[in-house]
Task: inverse folding
């Protein structure tokens, strides 16, 4: 039956499919070698039951103008695309030329989305080959603008929406998703999108953008990802009053109703995809923490804004110690100011505290809390009994209410300092060595504060981490000018390097994108059942060790987003190691292969593979 050498080749790769496929083509007398000139002994193939226009309109199958003649023949699309078969490099030339003609980042975003909707292989090739430039379009910062405008630039559906009208139906609905294998799910309720606040269902662009980076940076398969919005309503008046808004037109569910909604969704996911990693994204404080606390020991999940941001910020601080010529286990010698007390602020500080405790140079957790001064939108979390500082000019930072501080935030309360001191007062009083911005409030790192900081330390570590760019606590230019070019600088969104008095001052980007694709890859490869704190701490240490001595000296803390695949590989290997060490891995290790080889081999690379049609009744 398998006389044809090409069919034998396929047979050795996907026995089940090809045996069936042979039957199929036998019936149509298409078993000559000529039908499969593109298949060789070692050829990878993808199979489909689709035919004709359905192939062309499926972005996971479509190759646009790159279908070979024999593929056109066997997929029933002969004559349905222009006659010349165009290799991928030619397609890329055309795409790049068109992309360059887009005038604004948002136009580029719309262009990239359209490409993703037509041909995912080409989309990911383009993205991977131009990661530094294009991650700024499909991800931070442009994705922020795209979220705000989601309901007006909406073209085609992607991902799944679970909304308040779906209660009681979610377990059935999850079966509408077309793929049986899902490895990574990114879910948001749109309540705190980047530093932009409540954007309701418009937040969908965030899971889509994050998952595109999972594929491009972490080598996860595009068929194995699922972006999700939990549409529990919105409190954004502008959206509620906009007749074109696409989400539910009621205010947010809260309290028990909210948690019951999420619980039903988790059950639905678990019923179909029990092994999938769930990334909670852009949930407002304290829901973000409460959900993490509820689910982290029950399912394979993490919160990106709390845990990944924490890992990358810690990586940045550790690398900054190295750049200053200090050992990385001297974290306890730093004095750290954190502006922002929401999920990211508290998450980052907890990661630093965990690390100080792990390094063994503090006697207690309390001592570690003492090295961090936290400010919320009213100023320092200090001692009300000592009086409150001038509140006539409240700091415009963060969301939330000073009166609602919880036990996580109160750990940082400074008993010996007045409550609500402003940033400059705090800086003058404690002379910090590191200042972190996780406030979502632009400009809060003001000149007075940063100049005062620079007086007390040779190389001030200035990390305004809020996103997107216009929410940053200060600009790179400001940081270098106010510190005479001495700052070690990193921001959440990209800035260009700054020239200051003839010297090029290096800008780093500390974004959780450096962490989550590698983490997801490690979890997927090892089939870890849980995501643990150790995985994040080791991720931080791994990333912090990636820059060379020379790079550190020049102010580069670690490789940029352009090297995301290399960073992700290292992180994934570490995460796998921990998964096996902690006895959480469910994948069998393969004999004779190192973890690094297994990770490398499992990374998906966008290239066209021959497509063959199979019988739908397999
Ligand atoms: O999306 C980003 O660029 C980083 C992030 O998670 C956030 O700011 O919420
Ligand atoms: Mg986020």
Result:
């Amino acid at each position: 039956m398998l006389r044809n050498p090409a069919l034998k080749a396929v047979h050795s790769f996907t026995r089940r499919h090809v045996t069936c496929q042979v039957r199929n083509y036998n019936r149509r007398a298409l078993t000559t070698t000529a039908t499969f000139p593109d298949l060789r002994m070692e050829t990878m193939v993808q199979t489909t039951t689709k035919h004709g226009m359905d192939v062309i309109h499926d972005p996971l199958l479509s190759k646009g103008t790159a279908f070979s003649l024999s593929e056109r023949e066997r997929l029933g699309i002969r004559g349905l695309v222009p006659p010349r078969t165009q290799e991928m490099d030619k397609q890329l030339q055309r795409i790049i030329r068109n992309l360059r003609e887009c005038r604004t980042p948002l136009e580029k975003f719309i262009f990239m989305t359209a490409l993703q909707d037509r041909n995912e292989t080409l989309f990911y090739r383009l993205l991977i080959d131009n990661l530094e430039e294009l991650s700024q379009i499909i991800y931070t910062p442009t994705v922020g603008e795209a979220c705000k405008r989601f309901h007006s630039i909406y073209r085609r559906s992607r991902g799944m929406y679970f909304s308040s009208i779906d209660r009681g139906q979610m377990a059935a609905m999850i079966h509408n998703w077309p793929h049986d294998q899902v490895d990574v799910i990114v879910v948001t309720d749109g309540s705190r999108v980047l530093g932009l606040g409540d954007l309701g269902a418009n937040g969908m662009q965030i899971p889509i953008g994050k998952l595109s980076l999972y594929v491009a940076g972490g080598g996860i398969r595009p068929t194995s990802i699922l972006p999700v919005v939990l549409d529990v309503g919105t409190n954004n008046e502008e959206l509620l009053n906009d007749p074109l808004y696409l989400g539910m037109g009621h205010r947010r569910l809260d309290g028990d109703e909210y948690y019951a909604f999420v619980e039903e969704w988790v059950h639905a996911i678990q019923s179909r995809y029990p092994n999938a990693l769930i990334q909670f994204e852009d949930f407002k404080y304290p829901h973000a923490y409460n959900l993490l606390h509820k689910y982290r020991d029950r399912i394979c999940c993490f919160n990106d804004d709390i845990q990944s941001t924490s890992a990358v910020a810690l990586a940045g601080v550790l690398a900054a110690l190295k750049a200053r010529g200090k050992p990385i286990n001297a974290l306890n010698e730093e004095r750290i100011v954190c502006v922002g007390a929401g999920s990211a602020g508290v998450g980052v500080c907890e990661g630093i505290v965990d690390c100080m405790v792990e390094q063994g140079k503090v006697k207690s957790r309390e001592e570690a809390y003492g090295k961090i001064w936290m400010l919320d939108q009213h100023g320092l979390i200090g001692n009300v009994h000592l009086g409150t500082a001038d509140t006539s000019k409240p700091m415009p930072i963060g969301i939330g209410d000073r009166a609602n501080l919880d036990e996580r935030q109160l750990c940082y309360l400074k008993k010996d300092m007045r409550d609500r001191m402003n940033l400059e007062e705090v800086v003058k009083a404690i002379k910090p060595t590191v200042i972190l911005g996780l406030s979502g409030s632009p400009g809060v790192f003001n000149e007075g504060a940063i100049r005062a900081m620079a007086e007390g330390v040779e190389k001030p570590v200035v990390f305004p981490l809020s996103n997107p760019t216009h929410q940053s606590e200060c600009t790179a230019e400001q940081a270098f000018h106010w510190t005479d070019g001495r700052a070690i600088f990193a921001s959440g969104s990209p800035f260009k390097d700054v020239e200051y008095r003839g010297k090029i001052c290096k800008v780093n980007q500390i974004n959780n994108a450096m962490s989550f694709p590698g983490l997801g890859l490690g979890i997927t490869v090892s089939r870890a059942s849980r995501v643990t704190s150790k995985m994040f701490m080791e991720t931080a240490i791994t990333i912090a060790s990636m820059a060379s001595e020379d790079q550190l000296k020049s102010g580069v803390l670690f490789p940029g987003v352009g090297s995301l695949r290399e960073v992700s590989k290292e992180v994934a290997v570490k995460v796998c190691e921990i998964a096996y060490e902690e006895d959480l891995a469910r994948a069998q290790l393969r004999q004779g292969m190192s973890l690094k080889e297994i990770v490398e081999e499992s990374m998906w690379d966008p290239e066209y593979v021959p497509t063959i049609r199979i019988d739908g009744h397999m």
